[in-house]
Amino acid sequence: MHNVESKELNIHVIGVGGCGGNAVTNMADLCSHTNIRFSSINTDISALHQCKNHEVLLIGESTTKGYGAGADPEVAYNAAQQSEEALRTLIEDDTIIIMIAGLGGGTGSGATPVLLDIAKKNHIDVMCFVTLPFKSEGSKRQEIASNALEEIKATANATLVLSNDSLVSALNETVGLLSAFRHCDTQMHRIVEAIITMLTNTGYINVDINDFSHILSLDGDTALGVGIAEENSSLCSAVTHALNNPLVNEQNIVGAQGVIVQLTCKEEPSLMAYEEMLATLQALIDDTRTLIISGVTVASDLPYFGEVLIIATGIPRKEQTKRLGTTQKENVVPMTKLLKASGGGLEKAYLDIPTFVRLQGREQG
Ligand SMILES: Nc1nc2c(ncn2[C@@H]2O[C@H](COP(=O)(O)OP(=O)(O)OP(=O)(O)O)[C@@H](O)[C@H]2O)c(=O)[nH]1
């Protein structure tokens, strides 16, 4: 835990289905924060038996008998409805829920929308982290995932979509399936950890729960990321790295209505580096009307100079962009603006190795 004062908040990380449970197990092991509640819910009792380090809840026991939803989201939807009371009790004291699910199977796709609905009725903010299945898993799973994603996006305050297929292109071809999944879990963990740090620590410039709720309330797509700065002068490249994670589907923040940029530094950053970092972000957003909320926290025990967390919401949805007839293209970053904002120093940063690959090297070394 970074050595700054902690705030009282009930943050609950909940995994739904097999993928969600695996991710929560890994996160609960890695989490450096105390007072964070971790739970898994599933229709499959044997999967819940693997979750040894956190709370579990079996749903729909009277219909599925604990044997899972058989890759049928409708079965899981009914199971979750049947256990509505237990789900409501599970989350009743929560301030924020971070929900994690793999889409394409039964439980994650069918039960997540029900839990989201209950959270919404109880006025709890929810950020959803979901994975999309490998293409090789077949078109039926893709279809299930895409229907579930639509429902989730309509209800969650923010949704981060990670693509399992991107694991294949981002990692070495020889990587094992479980290592690839663990890698995906690590990416989610980094972002979740940075969000918890921001919300529970009091910064010199503070982003609080109301700022967070406001940004999450903006309608549209979400982009999230964490970038590492080895030194004061690399804060700009940390911004671009944060939005350059190949596993994350949405990296383009052009036209975002609201952005939180939380800088956590080992020591005080220079004013110039801080301003350049914000200018880089402005250039990526390319819209002067955007509400930008920036926070700065000094955490002397950070193992590198700084960490930049970006949460961009209210990003025009693709179909919205088409309907409006704009010329903005997906994932096209206005490079000229970037270079101008960074005084040219960004060119190297942009071509640099993505943060998560460098971090992987650090983990292995
Ligand atoms: N990144 C990642 N993806 C996973 C993991 N486990 C499964 N998946 C993906 O998530 C999708 C759903 O799998 P599960 O979460 O096991 O399925 P479920 O939602 O529990 O559904 P049922 O078992 O049918 O009830 C799969 O199609 C995979 O693409 C994991 O540990 N990490």
TrEMBL record:
GO biological process, one term: FtsZ-dependent cytokinesis
InterPro entries, per database record: Cell_div_FtsZ, FtsZ/CetZ, FtsZ_C, Tub_FtsZ_C, Tubulin/FtsZ-like_C, Tubulin/FtsZ_2-layer-sand-dom, Tubulin/FtsZ_GTPase_sf, Tubulin_CS
Top-level taxon of origin: Bacteria
Places the protein is found: Cytoplasm
Keywords: Cell cycle, Cell division, Cytoplasm, GTP-binding, Nucleotide-binding, Septation
Domain Tubulin/FtsZ GTPase: 10-203
Cited Pfam families: FtsZ_C (PF12327), Tubulin (PF00091)
GO cellular component: cell division site; cytoplasm; microtubule
Quaternary structure and interacting proteins, as annotated: Homodimer. Polymerizes to form a dynamic ring structure in a strictly GTP-dependent manner. Interacts directly with several other division proteins.
Protein name: Cell division protein FtsZ
Annotated source species: Alteromonas hispanica
